[in-house]
Amino acid sequence: MALRWGIVSAGLISSDFTAVLRTLPRSEHQVVAVAARDLSRAKEFARKHDIPKAFGSYEELAKDPDVEVAYVGTQHPQHKAAVLLCLRAGKAVLCEKPLGVTAAEVREMAAEARSQGLFLMEAIWTRFFPALEALRAALAQGALGDLRVARAEFGVNLTHVPRATDWAQAGGGLLDIGIYCAQFISMVFGGQKPEKISAMGRRYETGLKESPVMPLAESELLADILEEVRKAIGVTFPQDKP
Q: What is the distance between the alpha carbons of residues 231 and 240, in angstroms, rounded to a whole number?
């Protein structure tokens, strides 16, 4: 029987995810609903992707009994609210990275999923690349010996994206791009917690600083690492608690 998906948010990343999901057999996966804060956008999204139901609020989708698993593709600061809404409605959740803006948010979502006995996963899509699957197999077999050093680099110019340079929207390269490097290192070393984290950053015209720099337990660890790096270079978000 096909797994029935609901799409939370009608933005670009949700559109990309839905388009790819629809390449899989309908006997395995079906998108049955989409929700946006603007009903007209949800209806447009539904027409584009041939989805039977469109909602003008996330609450309506969470209450829909036809939806088994929710894909959350909202912007970073809205992840926590959308994930908790869906979990509390009994839905399994696949949430875009980063799972949360702060480590406290990630721990709260993980705790809710565990208490409900529901599936929750951070959508780190690179974990499923064939090359990384081969690397994990090699590591598991000990083919690389006693691993001591791993290095990851990934850079994209995001300064032209308004959201990416706005602290109020959890902007910056760390959560958007740096997470790929951090999760790779975490994967290579089996989710071990770092003994020490050092960070360097550069200040842009907006005042935003950039860093050069998935089981739930690892998402929690990853959130801790990213938060420590962020605070080490002096970046705070509205979601940070005193």
A: 10
DSSP calls for 200-228: --EE-TTS-EE-----HHHHHHHHHHHHH
Helix axes 39-49, 12-21, angle to 10 degrees: 30
CA distances from 33 to 1, 9, 52, 86, 215 (A): 17, 11, 6, 13, 26
Cis peptide upstream of residue 98 (ω within 30 degrees of 0): yes
Which tokens sit at 68? 């088994």
Rounded CA separation 65/82 (Å)? 17
Q: pLDDT by residue (tens digit) across 83-135?
A: 999 999 999 999 999 999 999 999 999 999 999 999 999 999 999 999 999 99
pTM: 0.86
